[in-house]
Amino acid sequence: MKKHNFSAGPCVLPQEVFLKASEAIMDFNGSGLSLIEVSHRSKDFVEVMEKARNLALELLGLEGKGYKALFLQGGASLEFLMVAYNLLETKAGYLNTGTWSSKALKEARLFGEVIEVGSSKDENFNYIPKGYTIPDGLDYLHLTSNNTIFGTQLKKFPKVDIPLVCDMSSDIFSRQLHFSQFDLIYAGAQKNMGPAGTTLVVVKEDILGKVSREIPSMLDYKVHISKDSMFNTPAVFAVYTSMLTLEWLKNLGGIAAIEEINEKKAQLLYSEIDLNPVFEGFAKKEDRSNMNATFNLTDSKLKDTFDALWKEAGINGLNGHRSVGGYRASMYNALSLESVGVLVDVMSEMERKG
Length: 354
Ligand SMILES: Cc1ncc(COP(=O)(O)O)c(C=O)c1O
Prior knowledge:
Shape: globular
Helix content: 25-40%
Distance between the termini: 28 Å
Number of domains: 2
Bound molecules: pyridoxal-5'-phosphate
Largest sheet: 7 strands, mixed
Oligomer: single chain
């Protein structure tokens, strides 16, 4: 039986994507060759790479606006370093909203002065800092739009006249934003886009080439742009599967359509968390993430009963991250409303038992 997969990433992808990807493993485009044995320079794969890059820009509404899309390797974690390598000349600002922002900030400190413009560490990152001041003279401001571990999400983005960089690993393609307010967006594929192994970087070309240091080729966005994201052998399977997922999203009606579904899923789960006395939410209500819902049992003695119930219902991946504890339900694009319904039913059953 197919499980209801609430994993934080890698995570559920559309069933039709699994099917098409497995077909391509056996026979890519009727070529008599597997996707993973053909040359990445072959016409068929070059087309895949181009299509994936174009779909990413199209879905974000960034076509023809001076942006380039790249499918790189090294995970979002390598972007923590590459962003600073390519953009940090003297000082940068970071909003610290959780584990991933903290890691990004730590890497940037290797390259220049880093100012933490705000932090919610004082309350174990259960809220998004507001009303912070952005000092003058920054090379860029770095934000994390969705905090996968703590279950918080930025609803508003500061208006700045410096490059705005955003780690969107766990909510890219999930909600409508004015994506052109960002100058560089990066996201590991393994949540809303595909399997682990590739990272989408969308960068406005005119912010590059301004730092004085020499950049090693593999870490230089300009080099990857000049080679159409084929400077070295790309992660062919991850890029192909990402292309299939982006195609699926386009056919569904794009980000506007998926946002509506994501809203319904989040409302269903959060209203259960709020109405059911057996559970309590972790993140502050106004900052709750529509992608990752974090919650606890009000009575920890009920843990064994609840764990047995959700596992019996075919649910997978509900345990919270060790730095928060409790539970985390990740409701990425491909998770169905029906799966959230199954979880909510289990939670209601707990109320009857509890
Ligand atoms: C918001 C965010 N940023 C960065 C990362 C790190 O991604 P990767 O494992 O691809 O390096 C994650 C991983 O879950 C994440 O959720």
